[in-house]
Amino acid sequence: MAPADVQAEVLGNRRLSADYNVLLLDAPAIAAAARPGQFVMIRTGPGTDPLLRRPFSVFEIVGDGGRAPSAFSVLCKRVGPGTERLYRLEAGGCLSVLGPLGKPFDLVAPPAEAWMVAGGVGLAPFAALAGALRASGVACRLFYGARTAADLFYLDDFAARGVALDLATEDGSRGTRGLVTAPLEIALRGRPAGAAVTLYACGPEPMLKAVAALAGAHGCASQVSTERVMACGMGGCYSCVVSVRDSSGRARFVRSCLDGPVFDGAAVAWD
Ligand code: FES
Description:
Layout lengths: L3 E12 L4 E7 L1 H6 L5 E5 L10 E4 L2 E3 L8 E7 L3 H8 L5 E8 L11 E7 L6 H10 L4 E7 L8 H6 L3 E6 L6 E2 L3 H10 L6 E6 L2 H13 L3 E5 L15 E5 L5 E5 H4 L2 E3 L7
Parallel strand pairs: 8-9, 8-12, 9-10, 10-11, 12-13
Antiparallel strand pairs: 1-2, 1-7, 2-6, 3-4, 3-7, 5-6, 13-16, 14-15
Bound molecules: FE2/S2 (inorganic) cluster.
């Protein structure tokens, strides 16, 4: 289905901290078509300033009772003038949004378990993924790492969905001190023999590489959501290439906006 190019009204702006916020956007054509792992391109300023849109993962897909979803949210981190504007937007504002774009996650089914691994703003695709997986009865865990306890968000929301939480912070202020891959490795070692687990990861590339390596070492599948510079989101600029290996082991470049952003972790040529 072709992506929709819409003017989306801002329904709410939940500021999570001095740097992070969640924008809820009224965009039925995008919300109804979006799948967990897909992204949208948002023009962060009016007119042509800035010229290029920015990519954001679909964070939540919001429905009204049994009706088709009509809204979705994006998790934003304030890193420059564009995201500064998104941080300051108020309900009633309007944004130009194109989407949904890219390949979504493949959803596992019970009895397989889904273990999500998020680093920092890499939490961005996981509220929608957790919602879809829990709706089909999949047991979910979220391994979530950040710099400090103050940078961990939506914990109550994930817990309310029945997602088990394993936290890590670099300064030790919440959960395990250090990288989130440490509690993940402990959990992989301790899981019952024969338990099928798929790892879903989003965050810094070294974390994705480590997750893919852990998945391989422990006989699990992994799906990684890569973060690439995306100037167009539509396959036209080649700013977003990722090196992947085919079944013969030969590496080739593909465009993350078309062939990703979700890839089989075992297929990415990390070096
Ligand atoms: Fe332009 Fe992928 S973002 S080709």
